[in-house]
Amino acid sequence: MSFYAEKIFPRLNDLATETFAPLRGRALEEATGSVLEIGAGTGLNFAHYPKAVTKVTAIEPSPGMIDRAKGRAAAAPVPVELKFGEAESLPFPDGSFDTVAATLVFCSVHTPEKAAAEVKRVLKPGGKWLLLEHIRSDDPGMLKWQQRWNPLWRRIFLGCTLDRDIPALLRSAGFDTSGTREIDVEGPGLVRHLLVGAAVKR
CATH number for the domain including 18? Predict the structure, then answer.
């Protein structure tokens, strides 16, 4: 990977996602048992896992992100194991985890349909996929701006897509989405519309 991707972007990502910090604990409060965190980034979620979690297995495709996450993993209130890996090809048997967590990740997954199928595969029956994701705006005017900014945004944020319809992705993958909700938060309008909550494996 490039110097930008491995050295500069991890720090930029921390700054860019700072506005979402209060929502991380809210997104992860239902985590229990064995947890798989997809796209762990620099480990900003690790401090927010509740005591009901026995272990977090955190996968991340960027060595630069993993290097920055090591200190946060060591300081986490629950055991955290960092692994190199990608969402589209999870190196775990079927039904391995009670919970899967993904925060601000599925905007940049290359093939989200394949990744969603993998999440479903590694979850136990009735397991929860906990989400905090910025999504396609429900405001037509803002959606146009998301689409206009997408080419440049993807370059700066390494594939992050502003107008991805993640609720539709979850439903297509066969998850029960009744435990999720769409909210608007303060911050840049392009990423103000969020999906938060728990999708359940049927």
Answer: 3.40.50.150
- Structural domain boundaries, residue 130: 3-201
pLDDT digits (tens, 9 = 90+) for 153-195: 999 999 999 999 999 999 999 999 999 999 999 877 899 999 9
Taken in order 40, 1, 18, 134, is the CA torsion positive or negative?
negative
Number of separate domains in the chain: 1
Q: Is the pTM of this model over 0.85?
A: yes
Mean pLDDT score of the chain, rounded to an integer?
96
